[in-house]
DNA sequence: CTAGAGCTTAGAGTGCACTCTAAGTCAAGA
DNA sequence: TCTTGACTTAGAGTGCACTCTAAGCTCTAG
């Protein structure tokens, strides 16, 4: 719901809408606690309003989504930190970023292979119903 | 190496060969520490030799392999415990085991979907080279 | 003016799955 | 006989990624 939440139409020409931490939490499924944690460890750098509250710009939200995707592939927080440190550092680091991504892609492909193997084992157990010890694969 | 380690040829007609903890560790890639841990929490029940050392029968090794597959799919240790508790309890629990496996299969399929989504995002970043903030997906 | 919701911070606590330590036993080789 | 090395145990420690707590600030509604 509420993609238009917290939208400000008239007052500023400030681009497309800044979201509160709770809005981002709801939108992305990442808890507010985790969002603050991500910021603390340098994955994110979010502007504040006059009262010191976080205002998430669309690109911040996109970054959260991308972090979530990487976490779903079990990329360690360390590596995600390293990646965004490189992004911060500018275009000179592009080849290193690329290398990092390519290496991670291999890990994802390995995970996919693992999952397929495991799925076969589970399917086999299901097929033999109940899975006695004998039929381990 | 040493598949023949600790093999006893003549004395007993005890089936096909029992492996030491280190042999199983090497064979399966699960550390000896982890193997003891698995036993402690009830995932495994392994016989001892006269000196109290673990002797892994082939079906024990197969169970370790199956546990590893389940762990690769992020099944929580709790659920694996539950599964093997049901196996222990005999054929009356087959339908519950089946249900558990079917539910887990769904989770594996969800993981596969997640991985594919993430892989696409990574591939996209790689395609646009270096992955500037703009191109988050 | 006041109450309450929702935010802020630093820092402590949690749960998972190992992983390691310490102290001891045992069998085989020099 | 002595040493070496692999094993045993109970229990403590580790690393990761959050997750929560406590104390305090600020905006809005009543």
The number of strands of chain A is 2
Distance between the termini of chain A: 44 Å
Largest interface: A-B, 44 and 44 residues
Q: What structural category characterises the helix and strand content of chain A?
A: mainly alpha
The number of domains of chain A is 2
Lateral strand order in the biggest sheet of chain A = 1-2
Instruction: Kindly state the percentage of residues in helix of chain A.
Output: 55-70%
Proportion in β-strands of chain A: under 5%
CA radius of gyration of chain A: 21 Å
How many DSSP helices of chain A?
Answer: 5
Notes on the structure:
The structure is a homodimer of 137-residue chains. Chain A is mainly α. The first copy, chain A, has two domains: 1-72, Multidrug-efflux Transporter Regulator, Chain: A, Domain 2 (Orthogonal Bundle), CATH 1.10.1660; 74-137. In chain A, 57% of the residues lie in helices and 3% in strands. Chain A contains five helices and two strands. Chain A has a two-stranded antiparallel ribbon. In chain A, a hairpin with a 5-residue loop joins strand 1 (47-48) and strand 2. The longest helix of chain A has 34 residues, at 94-127. The model of chain A is unreliable at 1-14 (pLDDT under 50). The A-B interface holds A 59, 62-63, 65-66, 69-70, 72-73, 83, 87, 91, 93-95, 97-98, 101-102, 104-105, 108-109, 111-112, 114-119, 121-123, 125-126, 129-134, 136-137 and B 59, 62-63, 65-66, 69-70, 72-73, 83, 87, 91, 93-95, 97-98, 101-102, 104-105, 108-109, 111-112, 114-119, 121-123, 125-126, 129-134, 136-137. The structure holds a DNA duplex (30 and 30 nucleotides).
């Amino acid at each position: 719901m509420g993609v238009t939440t917290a939208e400000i139409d008239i007052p500023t020409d400030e681009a497309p809408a800044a979201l509160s931490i709770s809005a981002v939490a709801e939108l992305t499924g990442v808890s507010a606690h985790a969002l603050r944690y991500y910021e603390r460890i340098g994955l994110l750098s979010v502007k504040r309003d006059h009262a010191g509250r976080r205002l998430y710009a669309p690109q911040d939200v996109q970054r959260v989504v991308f972090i979530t995707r990487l976490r779903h592939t079990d990329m360690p927080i360390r590596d995600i930190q390293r990646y965004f440190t490189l992004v911060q550092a500018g275009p000179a680091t592009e080849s290193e970023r690329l290398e990092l991504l390519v290496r991670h892609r291999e890990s994802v492909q390995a995970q996919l292979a693992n999952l397929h193997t495991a799925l076969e084992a589970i399917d086999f157990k299901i097929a033999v119903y109940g899975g006695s010890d004998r039929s381990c694969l």
